[in-house]
Design goal:
This protein has 245 residues and is α/β, with parallel strands linked by helices. Helix content is 36%, strand content 24%. A six-stranded mixed β-sheet has the order 6-7-8-3-9-10, with helices on both faces. A four-stranded antiparallel β-sheet has the order 2-1-4-5, with helices on one face. It binds adenosine-5'-triphosphate. Adenosine-5'-triphosphate binds at residues 11-12, 16, 34, 36-42, 77. Residues 11-12, 16, 34, 36-42, 77 line the site of adenosine-5'-triphosphate. This is NitT/TauT family transport system ATP-binding protein.
Length: 245
Amino acid sequence: MLKISGAAKIYGGQTIFSRFDLTVAQGQFNVLVGPSGCGKSTLFDGLTNVISLDKMALSWKGEALPHLGCHAAYMQQKDLLLPWFSLLDNALLPVKIGNQSLAAMTTMAENLFSRMGLKGYESHRPNEVSGGMRQRCALVRTLMFNRDLILLDEPLSALDAITRRRLQSLLLLLQTEFNKTILMITHDIEEALLLADEVYILSPLPMVITDRFVLDQEKPRKFTDPRLLEIKEKVLAQLQEGAHR
Ligand SMILES: Nc1ncnc2c1ncn2[C@@H]1O[C@H](COP(=O)(O)OP(=O)(O)OP(=O)(O)O)[C@@H](O)[C@H]1O
């Protein structure tokens, strides 16, 4: 279980969040939805030690930790690919940092490139491909870390509808086949409802969880399910209420 208690961050006198709590059961795929600028990326950056938070008690699988550091793979909102490396070398960065076998990991990366529609672009530099391709490469790199916990900050935002649907299926596989625990930020409510076991609705600053929807519908889901449409309306109503508070 991932347990976050009392997370707090103040930027220049502005409270982004204080006493922020969140629990994610192991193996769950949970999604955060909230207005732009409410503090979602700041929370993920703090969890993974990209920035330091003012306060937080954290545990993962029962172990108290100062941050998730090497326990989670984190895909940030900006792709952060190194411009002078090829796409494949960018994807292999976790291997260069760690001590896994390069041959085995290259095969894994090439497989993922194939599944992500990046085959043939392995030797391209990031500035030679589209934003959506860079985003997919960043997702491959995140998966190459091979961690049990994955934090994704709008991982599919730059993709066309068809590619997005394909990669949503791939994200589901990470949960169902590889038992990963996933915490994802998205602005796409339908995406949240197709993938999530639980959806958390966040308020504008200071960020708190204003509502939580538990979805027990079997996956993969279709948006023709009237129960999903009903939840979508409730989520939209919650977000609108938050925006006018
Ligand atoms: N380095 C910083 N210095 C000062 N304020 C910051 C800094 N980084 C973020 N903020 C502020 O913190 C707030 C939350 O930003 P954050 O990027 O976490 O929001 P978000 O919910 O992820 O937004 P979006 O959905 O648009 O990505 C914003 O008001 C932002 O201006």
